[in-house]
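Help! Submission page says 'invalid entity' but I think these are all valid:
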Amino acid sequence: MIKTTSLPVYGQEATRNFIIALAGNPNVGKSTVFNRLTGLKQHTGNWPGKTVTRAEGTFTHRNRRYTLVDLPGTYSLHASSAEEQVARDFICFSRPDLTLVVCDATCLERNLNLVLQILEITNRVVLCVNLLDEAERKGIHIDIAALAHKLGIPVVGTAARSGRGLSSLKDVLDDMVAGKIATTPRQVVYDPELEASISEIEKRLTPYLPDWISSRWAALRLLERDYSILEHFTGNKNEQFPQRVLKEEVALCLQ
Amino acid sequence: MSTINNQGLSIIREIEPLLPGNVPNIKDRIVSVIYQQAEGISAQVVRTENLYQTSLEARLDGILTSRWLGFPIMLLLLTLVLWITITGANYPSQLLASGLFWLEGQLLHLFAAWGAPAWLTGVLIQGMYRSLAWVVSVMLPPMAIFFPLFTLLEDLGYLPRVAFNMDNLFRRAGAHGKQCLTMCMGFGCNAAGVTSCRIIDSPRERLIAILTNTFSICNGRFPTLIALATIFMGSLAARAYSSMLATLAVVAIIMTGILTSLLVSYLLSRTLLQGVSSFFVLELPPFRKPQLGQILIRSLLDRTLFVLWRAVVIAAPAGALTWILANSFVADTSVFALIAGWLDPLGQLMGMDGIILIAFLLGLPANEIVLPILIMGYLSAGSMLELDSLNALQTLLLDHGWTWITALCVMLFSLLHFPCGTTLYTIFKETRSARWTIMAALIPLALGILVTLIVNQGAKTIFF
């Protein structure tokens, strides 16, 4: 039986070492950003109980130490594969100081799905629009300022292969951590029927939730009947029931 | 996977009545709203000029993945890569072989000068060193050419297009479209191919992909195929066309493997592993300019040296074992000859002989060493001739009654027999089932016996 709760919770140690989660779709140059930021100060391993590779690296900027955790590349956070679950659990339950999302400027639309999903979980997000050079060669231009305005979070354009934009990216990360930037993340609004269910579930759920979990996001997951999130915030770990019992219980409830 | 406690259950009890009935529908609704928003934002911040390059890329994709040209181009590229490999590997192979076998002579002199006992010289030089020399001289040059070319295609972004072309075929065979990716992986190494089957989520389709991965000719088998094709198929044509014919023979074997893979997938999905194939979204990444330095380093270090090292580690003890078997006697007959004698009737039916079958059996740890063991088997059984080139190998094989039919049957059996030990172990680790591991060995073996029987009997009836 594998429990994702064994993921370490970062950001609680006395000497502050700021944790940045690095998320993004596959093939967007996420590893290049990771390598460029951390240089050779990295080590790799596996996520506990998973066959998914985990890479971590450190860097120092303006006298602050950062640990960058490279999450597996995913298209969404629906927890339908081991990679997606690892990425989602880290962003949500390991409480990184902020999440840096890397996306591909040549196909921004597809990449924004992940960004919007992450914005439902946390407001501490910086977006890095990478592969700007490739996009320019293809005649694709992106209005970075407008994008930042629409999403309500800082957006930095980069071409990580050549190192372009990375120093301002570091500045923005630092400003976020220092609390100099306030975000107003764009929230996806669903159709009225769904919204009604969401707020109903949210109301019942709030008493159980720690304040660092977005109740709207949790409500959405329960609405999808994704109960795997419950294990991360429900009380006493000693009384645990296997999935089989859970299914029977749910079946009883449904009758 | 997960565990939920009492509090979690009470949350579920409280919330379950609030949930609307149809779950997949809700997921779809949530996702589609997010997609719409992403589309809306992107439309407002992205401006696209219609440049020549984007349309060039689109046109290139149109050709590479077109219904009519997709497959011929794939075949053509495969043939080209193998042809470059076969033509290019010939000369360095000769050079390495003559160098390494010259060294063997020197080592023999050295051992003789030391007065080393005959058995020690036998095990170390004629056993270990000779099989090592064969592995290096036969395998290193083709790998050093083939891997960079393969990595180049990978880096250019061609492999996802191959997957795109093949996806439909695999789905019709009742398998997962991603199986063509795991199959491509298997061309590198079946053990890696089996591990890569993890990308397939459905257990049924993953099992099909695992069981059929061995039908991808792995790097351990390419050198054997290339050598045999060069010697026997190549010599069927005039000198100018011989490397082309050899190439085509290897391509034909690879295609047979792919077809077998599809056929077995089809049969499995109709019998033992019934079910519907699931869909997946295949993204065609943009073509990227390959990084040549990276390609060379990665393919030489990660692939060539890795495979070579594995071969060397296994070939050394296997070579020693073969020598010992060939030089331990039970009443005048060596143990090797004894086993070969038992296997010979079956081997003859399959167009081969007992020694070839022993070579495949002893080659279980790694396919790389089948040819070296075969050579040592023949050498120990007969005269000790100096083997320093493919020509010498040809003479040796002809002396032992080989014809092009023998070569064809060996090539087919190399495609269709049990996977190597590492692959079987990986299959066991991945499936956690001894039953499926045994199936993974039995299915190709049974097919191999059947096919070589038919080919051998058929060819002999037609041509002799």
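Support: the input was valid. A stray whitespace character was the problem, and the output above is from the cleaned input. The mean pLDDT of chain B is 81.
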